[in-house]
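Thread title: Can someone regenerate the structure for this chain?

I was given the following input by a collaborator and told the matching structure tokens would be attached. They weren't. Posting the sequence so someone can regenerate them.
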Amino acid sequence: MGRIIIFTGKGGVGKTSIAAAHAVRAASEGKKTLLVSADMAPNLGDIFETEVGGNAVPAGDNLYLLELDPDQLVRENYPNISKAMRNLFGSSGLALDNLDDEMIIPGFENLFSLLKIRDIYNSGEYDLIIVDCAPTGETLSLLKLPELLSWYMEKFYPVGKTMVRVMAPVSKAKYKVTLPNRKAMNEIEQMHWSLVALQELLKDPDVSSVRLVCTPEKMVVDETKRSYMYLNLYHYQVDGVFINRILPDDAGSDFMNHWGSIQKKYIRELESVFAGIPITRIAWYPHEVRGRAAIQHLCDDVLGDKDILNVRVHTDNEIYEACDGGWSLTIRLPGAAKEDVTVYQHEMDVNIKVNNFNRCIPLPNTLTGAQIDGWDVADGFLRIQFSKKADGQDETAEAGKDGK
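Best answer:
Regenerated them for you:
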């Protein structure tokens, strides 16, 4: 079985360099490794000082580089969706003269990149896929997209498909609007099932994990802590934290030593938050990490003889349990306060909003008819209490662990 490791962090903290060091180490151990950038502003070519594009290129023994191009992915995999969108907008009277024939749906660029990564994994061509993601906010939006779109597809697509088939002749004749044709709708359905498979792949702890890269300064540390909380909300496994650009104990001046003392405070804070997760400290190098020699130096210095590529941290982020009066759902939310969280129920879905991030969880069949009695946030966990189900339902059946 292959593996996917996703690197993310605030912009400018060095995640590309650290992802590159992992890729070089894996390749040196004989693992056929693909280092792929899912950032809309990729820089793998800059750090390796070579040309990288939309197709994998070799960068040494067992090492390949790829910078994903969403436009290319849409042309190759979903041509009818783009054509349908163009026809829909064009027939609505919008001026599309400046748009090319492969118009991509705004905001979906990263989704097609993720689907491509899934296809590469399923091909079995590589032993390890290392993903250099965009800065934190964009990465979180990216990782929550498969589950979100899959939920919408399951709820609305069957009805929407029927309506499009019925309304297509009327809309074109009466309103001059061209709705998606059968080929486009079939591609949307295909994308739906791809999203389901992608979601299962990214949340399989034996396959995928996330590693956070940060620097020891307040804004970065705060963002890293929030990212950890949101990743737990969406049921992703975090199995590594890399603290970059650490000053030496004696930096040579009072000014730099003062900054060193500030860094130590934030390093202690990170160690307390990420207790139980491997933390790697990385010195602040006097030169930029660019070129194969610099990457190799970082690889040797940081990774050394550590077996860091095989680290696994499995955390139960969603637990259903029978209790007095019904059932409880416990979700790990490290660092969350009750005022950050809102919980409400809509039919057989539980909606959890943490600050600006929302997740809708379909409840297992065992909880059919159950209602939320209350919820609380304490000690890094959200606990939701459900009342007993209606009479005649089996209260002893086990709830699905993943809430499906």
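Residues 88-99, 159-180, 392-404 have pLDDT under 50 and may be disordered.
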